[in-house]
Amino acid sequence: MEVRSIWTSTERCGYLDFPHAAQVFTIRREVTAMVSQKYRSETVHGLSSLPTERATPARLLALSRGHWTIDNRLHGVRDVTFDEDRSRVRKGAGAQVMASLRNLAISLLRLAGARYIAPALRHCARSDPQPLRLIGLRL
Predict the structure, then answer these.
(1) Who contacts 36 (Cβ-Cβ below 8 Å, separation ≥6)?
(2) What percent of the chain has pLDDT over 70?
């Protein structure tokens, strides 16, 4: 269970040597693990170029929480499911090409409705025509 609190201020921006800072904020996260009941608390500080009219405290909390979406939905999948960190492809543009192919596979599976990529990959590996259907080919 996580409880998040936010404090925002526009008054402190005058003290910052940071161009375009419109507001500063402090987010406090208090997390209690459901099973172990272990408690932890963390405080993070940030700033935004968005004025208060465009970034209310609620929106800043949502933006902060959504910041990790790309890591969890793409990079994490590439790291865990494709074991990308142990890839031996190093020469030329090979690593970039392989990352692009992994991104393509993840995107196609997500477009096809796969919520979990690893089981979807296993399904495609067992089914001859399935991967071709994902790219629009009918056999």
Answers:
(1) none
(2) 96
Supply the mean pLDDT for the chain. 87
Helix orientation angle between 117-126 and 94-111, rounded to the nearest 10 degrees: 90
Q: Which residues contact 135 (CB under 8 A, 6 or more apart)?
A: 108
84 membership: H or E segment, kind and range:
none
Quote the pLDDT of residue 70: 67
* Residue of 8, 13, 40, 14 whose CA lies nearest to 27: 8
- Model confidence pTM above 0.85: no
Query: What letter would DSSP give residue 47?
Result: E
- The dihedral built from the CA positions of residue 46, 48, 53 and 56, taken in this order, carries a sign that is negative
pLDDT at site 97: 93
